[in-house]
Amino acid sequence: MTEETPGFEEKPDVPSGATPDGAESKAAPSSNAEGAAPAGDAAAQIAGLTAQLDQVRKALEERTADLQRLQAEFQNYRRRVERDRVTVKEIAVANLLTELLPVIDDIGRAREHGELVGGFKSVAESLETVAAKMGLQAFGKEGEPFDPTIHEALMHSYAPDVTETTCVAILQPGYRIGERTIRPARVAVAEPQPGAQSVKAEEATEAAGDDKESGGPDEG
C-alpha cells in the first residue's frame, strides 16, 4: 500500500516551450520580432546614406560647374588683358614715332641735298635704325596706283602714258607700323588725258582689223 505524502501533488511533466496547461510558450515569437527590427533599421540607414550621397554628388556637380565657369572667365580676362597690353604698347610706340617723323623728314631732306655728313650722319642713321627696330616702315613709290587709303594727293595732272590714276611723284613718304598707317604718303598724281581711252580703243580696233586682213588666205 503506497503512502501518500500529505500536502504534495505530483505535477505532470511540462514540455519545453509550453505552459503547464498545455499552451505554447510566447517566448519564441519575441525572438523573431527582434531579428526583423535590425533589418528594417539597416534598410532605413541605406536609404538615408543614398540620399546623402545624391546630395553630395549634386553639390559636387554644382561646384565643378562653378569652377569651370570661373576658369573660363579667368582665361577670357587674361586674353583681354594681354590684348589691351599689346594695344597700349602699339599706341604708345605710334605716338612716339609720330612725334619723330618731322626729324626723320629733315634727315631725308639732308640726305637728298648731300648734307648728311660727319657726326650728324652717324646720329641720324642711329635714329633711323632705332625707329626701324620699333616697327616704323616707310612706303610710297613713284608709278604705283593711287590708293586713297594710304595716299594723300597734293598735286594733280594728266598724262598720256598712264591708264589709271597713278602716283608720279612722292612729295613726302608715308609711314606705317605693322598694319597701322600713322601718316599717308603725300604724292602728286596723274590721270589719263580725257579722250585718251577712246583714242586707244579706236587704235586697238584698227589694229585688230589689220591683223585680221593680213591673216587671210593669199590669192594665187
How would you portray this structure in words?
This protein is of the alpha+beta class and 220 residues long. The protein has two domains: 42-134, no CATH class; 137-208, Roll (Nucleotide Exchange Factor Grpe, Chain A, domain 2). Helices cover 55% and strands 16% of the residues. The protein has three helices and six strands. The protein has helices at 27-112, 118-133, 196-214; strands at residues 136-139, 151-159, 166-172, 174-177, 180-183, 185-192. The strands form two sheets. The protein has a three-stranded antiparallel β-sheet. The protein has a three-stranded mixed β-sheet with strand order 2-6-3, with no helix packed on it. A hairpin with a 2-residue loop joins β4 (174-177) and β5 (180-183). The longest helix is centred in the N-terminal third of the chain and has 86 residues, at 27-112. The protein is elongated. Residues 1-5 and 22-29 have low confidence and may be disordered.
